[in-house]
Design a protein that fits this description.
By secondary structure, the chain is α/β, with parallel strands linked by helices. The chain is 39% helix and 24% strand. Strands 3, 4, 5, 6, 7, 8, 9, 10, 11 and 12 form a 10-stranded mixed β-sheet that branches. Strands 1-2 form a two-stranded antiparallel sheet. Strand 1 and strand 2 form a beta hairpin.
């Protein structure tokens, strides 16, 4: 089995079919089909169901994706290791991040990395749970992952660099700011207010649901799946929003003020990577990440229940 066949297989997977994959690879579609057929013959199993013009992965095809990505990643690592003798001058680094760490500290780390390595291309994809990030790093789909969790992440076989503990804050709706000159609020002070909330599973949503369960008379007026919608909704006067402190600089630039919510709950943010066989670009990015790692702030963390272990 040669790596060209695996490359073509992954192209069909990533581009949802043979036609787009052939265009991406700049080859004729019959040539691509013949290569995939040869790979299937070599493996002794079909990798795709051909349904009209669609190509649907078989179970065997689904199982091949992770190992194929790992092989291609290791090939890139080997090539980069040779090139690194001349220094890190070019290449590509694949990163996966959850929404809040993708605001900060990822933005600052990318800014520092691109200043040092301007010819390295970064590809940043999205994940919505720590499990998604872990699977992406383990499978080789990405080399670097950023995850946020209510508790520190511990994963066998995965290197975890703890970066930050982000306290939860309130993005204040300017049309309903009744909090005076305070810089902090108690959770009970959410009573009587309308809230924009993320979907269940996030630490932020857990805090809101916990407040409601304790009899605090707040109202969830909008529930959104896309975290990027929350800040515009607050700016539009729809409601307040509970978010990690990574959103504070962007909120302040937009003219909003923020309040620390007490008792304080923290989102633990970490960088995940494989332990071995990293490309020079990934190793350089981890060096930047270590410079951004900060000691945890003093104080205790409110520990949410097991159900609040996902979206950060």
């Amino acid at each position: 089995m040669d790596t060209r066949k695996l490359k073509y297989f992954l192209a069909v997977v990533d581009h949802d079919g043979f036609s787009r994959a052939a265009e991406h690879l700049l080859i004729a579609q019959p040539s691509l089909s013949q290569t995939i057929a040869a790979l299937e013959k070599e493996l002794g199993v079909p990798l795709f169901h051909r349904i009209g013009r669609r190509a649907v992965l078989t179970e065997a095809g689904k199982e091949l994706i992770g190992p194929a990505r790992l092989v291609m990643r290791n090939l890139d690592a080997a090539q980069s290791a040779v090139q690194s003798v001349r220094g890190l001058r070019s290449g590509r680094l694949d990163i996966v991040t959850m929404p809040s760490p993708g605001i900060e500290p990822l933005s600052s780390m990318i800014a520092a990395f691109t200043r040092a390595h301007p010819l390295v291309r970064l590809n940043v994809s999205a994940a919505f749970t720590p499990e998604d990030v872990i699977e992406s790093v383990r499978s080789g789909s990405t080399e670097i992952g950023l995850a946020g969790s209510p508790t520190p992440i511990r994963v066998p076989g995965v290197e975890v660099l703890e970066l930050d503990r982000q306290p939860l804050i309130l993005l204040v709706n300017p049309q309903s700011d009744t909090f005076g000159a305070a810089t902090t609020i108690q959770r009970e002070e959410l009573a009587g207010h309308r809230l924009v909330a993320s979907q269940r599973g996030s630490l932020m949503r857990w805090l809101v649901d916990d407040a409601l369960a304790r009899g605090i008379d707040a109202e969830i007026v909008v529930e959104v799946a896309h975290r990027t919608s929350i800040l515009p909704l607050v700016l539009a006067g729809v409601g307040h929003a509970v978010m990690p402190s990574s959103w504070a600089p962007l909120a302040h630039k937009s003219g909003l003020r923020t309040l620390l919510i007490e008792p304080v709950s923290y989102l633990d943010v970490a960088v995940l990577s494989r332990r071995d066989d990293l490309t020079p670009a990934a190793r350089s990015f981890l060096a930047v990440a270590r410079l951004h790692a900060a000691p945890p702030p003093p104080g205790k963390t409110d520990t949410p229940p097991p159900g609040a272990s996902s979206i950060g």
